[in-house]
Amino acid sequence: MKSSSSSSLSQDKFYINAHGGMGRLGSFLFYSLALTTVFSFFLLFSPNSVKILPKSSVHYDQGREKIDVEECDLFKGRWVPDFRGSQYTNWSCPTIPVSKNCFRHGRKDTDFLNWRWKPHNCDLPRFDAKQFLAFVRGKKLAFIGDSVARNHMESLLCLLSQ
């Protein structure tokens, strides 16, 4: 007899806890939905909260060529010979660490220097250090990653030092 009354008592507690828990869950969901709705209206209707940039073209100053971003897919292209040569070499760049100076460690060929990436349907202009520095003035630039990101940073330093 004791067991039946204790089991009915525990069922009553379960029912109350489950009912009370649903009440708390329901109020949590209601307030979450209300807060999300208010925040969404704020984002949608406040002036200058989210600026949507139109698709535009990149224009270079000083009569340089124009690149239409919509037609130029930088990821589709091929390597082509560049008879102007590299903008820097291991000998001309003071920022290349000695441990990464291929020529100092015996590399004889220089053919790998005379190539550039040519995207289909457009042509990339040569890197211009002054233009790049004007573009990033007042901005932060970070290289995040592994040794490949470090190589990119060292290459940029070489390009800027020429």
TrEMBL record:
One of its GO terms (cellular component) is membrane. Belongs to the PC-esterase family. TBL subfamily. The chain crosses the membrane at residues 28-45. Keywords: Membrane, Signal-anchor, Transmembrane, Transmembrane helix. Its main location: membrane. This is Uncharacterized protein. It is found in: Membrane. Residues 124-161 form the Trichome birefringence-like C-terminal domain. It is a single-pass membrane protein. InterPro entries: TBL, TBL_C, TBL_N. Residues 70-123 form the Trichome birefringence-like N-terminal domain. One of its GO terms (molecular function) is O-acetyltransferase activity.
